[in-house]
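Q: Fold this one first, please.
A: Sequence and structure below.
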Amino acid sequence: MLAVPRSFQEISTVGTATTLWPFIDSMQPSADISAVATIDLDLTPTKPGRRVIVKWRGRPVLIVHRTEALIVQARADDAKPDLIEPALDSTRVHLPEWLVVVGVCTHLGCIPLDQSDGDPRGPFGSWFCSCHGSIYDSAIRFPRQPRGTDWLTHQNG
């Protein structure tokens, strides 16, 4: 067997890496895409019970400053047997008083109602999708059909 000098192997490895690096680096998101990946938002003026909608990566993100009653309701709903995807409220929020979800229905991709104060809230007092009848509880979980999956939160999105 022909022995290849170690220096040739090192040179060819470095040469291959140098040749491939521009291709590999091109797979990184561009600066304009990275710039829209994060947002800074001052939520201090948001009073309990109010909802804020911001756009993130072209999708609406709904931020709810939850009242104590909404937190208690969400925790009470944890035990409901009719939740399609049971997930504890505590696993869907980082701080109990703030619920942050991507506001796109996972069933058909529409944006459910209750983006504004006057919109109908359905029987659970939360979001309601008039397109196909999905109804959500106070932690944006699906207690009724038709369905997709629970809305993405900051922890699973």
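Q: Good. Now the second chain.
A: Here it is, same layout.
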Amino acid sequence: MSDLTRVDSYSVSQPEPPLVVIGEIAVTSSWLVTPAGTVPLAGTEFFVTDFTRVEQKTPTWAIVLAIVGFFLVFVLSLLFLLARESRLTGYVQVTARNGHLQYQSNVPVTSAATAPDVFGRVQYARHVVSLAG
């Protein structure tokens, strides 16, 4: 005899596909799915905060050329130190709240298009919530 016991099969509906995914937050047509739990979508609120910043620094190649050029042409080599390199860093914080469930997801920014993409996804999620209830 087998160690497996028979489990009665119940009519379980197929899981809904996510309509939008924001970090670890997934929104289906009727559910909010997070690692902290799943709740009905009706009444869900989304909050977005942009914590991105632009950092500027002198690139390594400019420092090397300024040092090498110091021995050749002093005044012109200092112009290399005026070169600046901009880099976008930070994250976009998305908070989903419904009743007792509140979940916060930090989406890292990898390019200038990341923050507008996250804001657009949240706007679409808000639209889905308005249709749900």
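Q: Anything worth noting on the second one?
A: The chain has three helices and seven strands.
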